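ugh ok fine here u go
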Amino acid sequence: MVNERGRRLRTVPFEELRRLVNDQTEHLTVESRKATITFIVQPQADGAVRVVVQGFMSTWPFRGIKRVALDGFYKSPDETLAPMSREEFREFD
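structure:
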């Protein structure tokens, strides 16, 4: 689900992404487990935005433990995309 949301966000025009600077959170249930997907859009010094999709789902049967899934990219005003490095994802783990 996180990767699908990331693919979809990559198609959103830069100006629209730029207006989503507040975190957007979606709560859902998958196979009776609670899940949360958060979209984080952060303006960058070079004018681009960093977009991170962060998904949390409780593991079954260990209800107190959550799994994290991440996807992310940079989008520039000219609509070009750049990937995030693995090291950058640690900030969101």
